C-alpha cells in the first residue's frame, strides 16, 4: 500500500517535470511518458504565448507612435498660436505704455 502511494506521489512529481533518480524509478516502475507529452504541449503553449506577446508589443508600439504623432501635431498646432498671443500681448502692453 505504501509503495503504491509513494509511486503515485513520485509520478505526480515526474509529471510536473521534477527529476526523479533512475534507481528510484526502476524500483517503483515509474513511466515518464506523461511528462514528455506534457512538456511538448508546454512548448507549444510557450510558442503561442511568445507570439501573443510579440503581437501585444506591436500594438503597444503602434499606440505609442500614434500618441507621439498626435502630441507632435498638437504642439505644432498650438505653438504658433501661443506665439501670436504673446506678440499681441506685447504690442498691447507697448501701446498701453505709450498711452500712459
Automatic annotation (TrEMBL):
Polar residues: bias regions: 73-83, 91-100
Region Disordered: start-end pairs: 33-59, 73-100
Protein name: Uncharacterized protein
Organism name: Anaeromyces robustus
High-level lineage: Eukaryota, Fungi, Fungi incertae sedis, Chytridiomycota, Chytridiomycota incertae sedis
